[in-house]
Structure formats: C-alpha cells, structure tokens
Write a structure and sequence with these properties.
single chain, 5-stranded mixed beta sheet, 14% strand, rod-shaped, alpha+beta, two-stranded antiparallel sheet, 6 helices
Amino acid sequence: MSEGSATTTSSTSKDEEIEWEMRPGGMLVQKRTEKSDSLAPNLLIRVAYGALRYEISVNSQATFGELKKLLTAETGLQPGEQRLIFRGKERENGDYLDMCGVKGRSKVILMEDPSSRERRAIEMRRNAKIQTAHRAISDVSMEVDKLAEQVSAIEKSISNGTKVPEVQITTLIEMLMRQAIKLDGIAAEGDASAQKNLQGKRVQKCVETLDVLKISNGKVKPVIVTTKWETFDPPPTTAHWEFFD
C-alpha cells in the first residue's frame, strides 16, 4: 500500500512539472517550449516540387508552416501559396513535423495552391496590359514632342510678323487630333492612366495655341517684295566703214 501510494505521488509530481496541450486532432501532447525546440535535432527533408527537388534542413519539432517559410527562399512561392503533402495528406501550418511522422530523408510533396496560380496568371495579364499601355503612351508622347516643336516654330514666326500659310496650321491641328484619338484608344490604369491624361492635356494645349495663332496669323499683312529694274539703252550697233581708193 505504501509503495503504491509513493508511485502515485511521484506520477502526480511529474504531471505538475509538465505542461500539456490539446492538438487539433484531439490528441493530448506535451506543450512545446523554446528549450525543447533548441534541443531537438535537425532533419534533412526531401521536398518534391514538380520536376524540381530540394533538400531542406529543419528542426524536427518545427511545424509545416515553418517549413513553408524555408521553402519560400528556394521556390519563390509565398507560404500562403504552398500546399504540403505528406503521406498522401495535406498538412496544416500548425502541424508538427515529428508528430506527423516526418523523419530524416522523409519526402514531402510541394504543390502550388490552384487559387494562387490563378491569381498569379491574372496579375501577369494585368502587368502585360500595363506595359502595353506604357509603350503606346510613350509612342504618342514622342510624336507630341515633335508636333509641339512645330507649334513653337509657327508661334515664333507669327510673333515676328511673318505670315504662315494657313494650310500649315490646319494640317498641324489634324496631326495633333490623330494623337488624341490614339490616346482615347489606350486602356490604362494607375500610373499609366496618369501619363495618358498628361499627354491628353499636352495635345489639347497645342490645339488651343494653334487656334489662337490661326486668328493672329490672319491679321498679319503679307510682305510684298517689289524689285525695281533699271533699264539701260543698248550700245549703238552701227559700224563706221572707212573707204580707200
């Protein structure tokens, strides 16, 4: 009786020293501590990701969530984009490697989450559209630069009192309007949309300037250059002949 009582007391004392926790599957296990993790050995785990193979060194008492963080550096996949399969079952982030039976050289299969793959594809298409918009806006910007230089040249000529052919102003306005139509056809968002609006304002400003110059040009009197020609009488063509006997 005394011996049984001593055994019970010893067991109770040991239980008081150990902290327990309930795992998601309903299993009662010893609570993990930083001290126990530091004493646990590292495992070399083989990870298969499609045709790629990785060997990851990780603490045996780490979680699958911690393993995902290590795999991010190797694969570029964020933890939320990863699915880890061990022994035919997908493992949760909070599952411990050793509790699931993972040992040295164990094989874990990594799969990309289908929803994240779809999001990535959508993001790639979106980025491609943005790049296309940037290129198209850049092309328009270069054309507007050239046309703006012509506007400045016409403005300088008219301010100096030189009349410019009206067809030159009209043609320049038409060329600017073509660029405005190109801008309207560009689907842009974000920074590209801001650049599109900026170029649209440049085109509008050039057209408005030409409209004003067209009026000013009509008031410029053309300079008529006249040349007065001085005439000279031709020299006499009669020759004096001398006769000899």
